[in-house]
Amino acid sequence: MKQLGFYFDQTQCTGCHTCSVACKDWHDIKAGSENWMRITANEKGKFPNISLTYLAVACNHCADPPCIKVCPTQAIIKRDSDGIVLVDQKKCLGKRVCGAKCLKACPYDAPQFSSEDAKMSKCDLCYDRLEQGQQTICVEACPMYALDVDTIDELHKKYGTNADIHGFRYNVKIKPSVVYKTRIT
What we know:
By secondary structure, the chain is an alpha+beta fold.
């Protein structure tokens, strides 16, 4: 099975949030707390030796996604063709009814809810764009070329296998599909 994944180059990211804004715009996500692509700032050190790095986090389309196992209605699936994890909102009971079991199971906070009774949504790896031969909107929008999406095998060939970065904990059991280039601080 082919498994798609994300590459993030922390040495290039300036924390501009262009990827996040482009994602919200492309997917018509209303202004508010729902963000399929999140940018976190990580501060380290003590004055005068301080550093600031950024981390882009979306759904990691894990090899063994825990969200699928806890969904009471099988609203979350993993496509065999490319490993993309998708949500069928027609089957989702909504945050209030099921208690957001998917969010509680995900160590990366990928499931998103726009309100208390909303149905779950999350990064779908722009599968509609990929099927048209286009790149994901976050990769296309990044002015610093800090993101890439490809098969995890190709990402490993191009960028190596590092999955360790400040602010992220790789889980060997669920195997998030990510590769990182870490800025040394």
